[in-house]
Amino acid sequence: MLTLSGISKAYGERVLFADATLQVNRQDRIGLVGPNGAGKTTLFSIILGEEPADMGTITSERGVSIGYLPQENAPVADETVIELATAITPEYTKLRRILKAWEADHPIEAVHAEEVHDDVHDRFNELGGYRLEAKASQILAGLSFRNQDFERPAREMSGGWVMRAHLARLLTHEPDLLLLDEPTNHLDLEALLWFQGYLKGYPGAILVISHDREFLNQLVGSIVEIRQSKLIRYRGGYDEYLEQREAYELQQLALYKNQEREIGRLMEFVNRFRAKNTKAAQAQSKLKQIERMEKVEAPEGDDRKLEFRFPQPQRSGIKVIKLENIHHAYGEKVVYQGMGFQAERGQRVVLVGPNGAGKSTLLKILAGVLTPQEGERTLGHNVKAGYYSQYRVDMLHLDRTVLEEAFDTPQRLTEQSVRTLLGCFLFSGDDVFKKVEVLSGGEKSRLALVKLLLDPPNLLLMDEPTTHLDLSSVDALAYALDQFQGTLIFISHDVYFIRALANHVVHVNAGRLTHYPGGYQYYLDKTKAESERAGLTAAGRDGANRGSSENKKGRGSEESGAVSSKKDQKRLEAEHRQARSRVRKAQQQIVHRLEKEIQQLEARQTELVAELEKQETYEQPGRAQQINRDLMDVQHRLTELNPEWEQEATRLAALE
């Protein structure tokens, strides 16, 4: 359907693509990945014809239609939401307005096709008519628009909602090829789940840039990575891509080292004998042999990776923050009535629950940026809170430069220390003099993290911290937070990020908080969520009701003195401790068994790689291919075992 052949593109000395190729077939689902600045969005611009390639050709089947959703800042004029969602052509929008104006001036029973200009009505039906509007309405509802929003001017809505309306327009239009640049950034979890399911049945092809691994795992059938100025394609979702890329890199490294040794051996001969008349011809032959070699490139890591550690904050008291009898409402909508909450030092709490349940409101109350209408917020001893807003512009001054914004901190810092930290977050050279308003979403997120690090809190409250960060930056943030010794309370729809960090889950629904004292897998097991992603948006009736009934039983027991005597109570407590000890020991055995198998596989992996690096391996016919097959088997088994170990280790941590 679409073919890119020999595409090259450079900006000065910076080469994005060199002889890159890509084939997109009908109904393909392709994820496009690579570090920030690799050229993902530029590739979209080249496909759309908005930017020329320096070399190469793009061919497509006749009549193929392409729809594009930019990452942000899609245009909007004076149309309503439904007009924007149905704006497949300016003509359709114009005809719809004519017919709507006519209908408004006539009683509904008088509306007949012959009473309206025939050409207007007929042409409107040719373009899809009201069937198209009905389809757009269903899509808008799936993207969480309310019916009363359909006739609102789109320009009155926030940028995120405008992007959703543009997404609805593309899905309504159904082009043959969808180019989507970070489409999940502006979606709440319920809309994301709907969108993910809708795309699975989409009739056309999809090429999507996304930093959401769960989304890629659920949707795509192949991953295309921009690497070393090439487009490298891998089969499967994001997890399979990571596995295949690691095996590919090991193989490339072995081939590269082997070739370098061979070149070194040949050059040693050349250097020794090129000056001797009897050997000069042979030396020249060796040089030509080196020139004829198809050079193997050394595998390269990402050129620019986010690398940082959170400075360890001052130690707080055990009781970090407490909310008591919180009442809060937005107009007539009551969010919380008599709510209580408490967090202790070292907890990493993730807030989950359906859209609109009050998670962000709870986080703002905890952060002190929103004052509840009733109730008390009490910080523990030596507690300093830091808030990372979902909307980064709330944390930044757009008229300042990056350097000026970083300096806006209570701490007294030198310019060198600030610029060093900015460099760790990929703001180098003249980047620090950019205005904040021109930064991309990912750059704003990184700058907001810099501000937190320059004045580190010991209670960190984060609302969707992974939005706009690329996948390597999400890894870096998760690693840094894993080393953080303070208290973390956060909201996220990135399952990978949640699994990496959370040791306590709080389900928020209808003003009620249900606590799950364990990691995300513990929460899923207790609530029996249908999927990992669905667990984040579930209304949690089973878990919440179970938690509620348990709480009621607990209160009833306390009020009526359910334990008949202190002796019986001590016996029950001892039995409970013994039972927990047995479960913990069994879990320890499971974890130790998995760790032992992983260690054995990693040792085998090292042996195989070492054998690939030996020259004699390639002198035995078929030996290198067999080693590569064995290496792939080991990599596949490790990919299976590592998540299993993480799950079992999380359960063990909860038990301990």
- How much of the sequence lies in strands comes to 15-25%
Briefly note the structural class of the backbone. alpha/beta
> Main sheet, how many strands, which sense, barrel?
6 strands, mixed
> What is the arithmetic mean of pLDDT?
81
Radius of gyration, taken over Cα atoms and rounded to an integer in Å? 30 Å
The percent of residues in helical segments reads 40-55%
Ordered list of secondary-structure elements with their pairings:
Layout: E1 2-11, E2 14-24, E3 29-33, H1 40-48, E4 55-60, E5 66-69, H2 81-85, H3 90-104, H4 118-126, H5 129-142, H6 159-173, E6 177-181, H7 189-200, E7 205-209, H8 213-219, E8 222-227, E9 230-235, H9 238-273, H10 280-292, E10 319-330, E11 333-344, E12 348-352, H11 359-367, E13 374-379, E14 385-388, H12 402-407, H13 415-424, H14 441-454, E15 459-463, H15 471-483, E16 487-491, H16 495-501, E17 504-509, E18 512-516, H17 520-527, H18 534-537, H19 541-560, H20 566-612, H21 623-655
Parallel strand pairs: 3-7, 3-8, 5-6, 6-7, 12-16, 12-17, 14-15, 15-16
Antiparallel strand pairs: 1-2, 1-4, 8-9, 10-11, 10-13, 17-18
Helix pairs in contact: 3-4, 5-6, 9-10, 9-21, 20-21
What would you say this structure looks like, in words?
- The chain is an alpha/beta fold and 656 residues long.
- It folds into 5 domains: 1-65 and 175-236, P-loop containing nucleotide triphosphate hydrolases (Rossmann fold); 74-173, no CATH class; 242-292; 319-550, 3-Layer(aba) Sandwich (Rossmann fold); 584-638.
- The chain is built from 21 helices and 18 strands.
- It has helices at 40-48, 81-85, 90-104, 118-126, 129-142, 159-173, 189-200, 213-219, 238-273, 280-292, 359-367, 402-407, 415-424, 441-454, 471-483, 495-501, 520-527, 534-537, 541-560, 566-612, 623-655, and strands spanning 2-11, 14-24, 29-33, 55-60, 66-69, 177-181, 205-209, 222-227, 230-235, 319-330, 333-344, 348-352, 374-379, 385-388, 459-463, 487-491, 504-509, 512-516.
- The strands form 4 sheets. Strands 5-6-7-3-8-9 form a 6-stranded mixed β-sheet, sandwiched between helices. A 6-stranded mixed β-sheet has the order 14-15-16-12-17-18, sandwiched between helices.
- The radius of gyration is 30 Å and the shape is globular.
